[in-house]
Amino acid sequence: MERKLQIMAAGLGLACALALGDAHAADESMSSGPVRLVRNVATGSTNQVAVVAFDAGARNCSQRIDLVTNFLTKGTQSSALVFLPDREPDNGMVSVSMEVKTEGLPRAYASATFSPNTAIGCAAEYETVQYWNESCTAVAAKTFKGATPTGSIGGEISILSIGPAARVFLMRSTSTSCVSIKKEVLK
Questions:
Q1: Quick one: pLDDT at residue 31?
Q2: How far apart are CA 93 and CA 45, in angstroms?
Q3: Taking the model in full, what pTM does it have?
Q4: Of 99, 114, 129, which residue is a domain's last?
Q5: Which 3 state secondary structure label does DSSP give 126?
Q6: What is the count of structural domains for the chain?
Q7: What span, in angstroms and rounded, lies between the C-alpha atoms of 108 and 110?
Q8: CA distances from residue 95 to 29, 59, 62 in whole angstroms, order as listed
Q9: Which one, 65, 66, 81, 110, has the greatest CB density within 10 A?
Q10: 88: left (phi over 0), alpha (psi -120 to 50) or beta
């Protein structure tokens, strides 16, 4: 019986090591070509997302990428998946998906897209998505206080205005939970 337990433990250890190896291999496969993984995005003079884009040749938007990703990740623990153009990186769209963890708030999914060669140089938009264990009314009152209710998209998703080109969409998940989507278009 003891020998069986040792064999099972060894097998379990091997399975865990293989799973970790597969996860590491998956991380490595996402860190080359047009999709790059950035662990622990750090804000500062220039963050890693902007460095990855710049090093890949997407230079027209590197300053905007730095500005927006620093805004989204300031004071957080974040990781990102950067989608880069296959060809002509300085003339193609760059997109970033991030996992953002802020102390005291629900974990968020953030997405940002950057488009070069516009009249302003580099246009951008971002969205953050969060699940709240509170009603949408409570989320609007606590988290987005001061925002102006401006109706709904259809019948289920309400809209709060938080700036000229910024909105928050609140979607009821259950009677006591809500999903918020904050979106801003930067011109």
A1: 60
A2: 23
A3: 0.79
A4: 129
A5: strand
A6: 3
A7: 6
A8: 18, 14, 12
A9: 65
A10: left
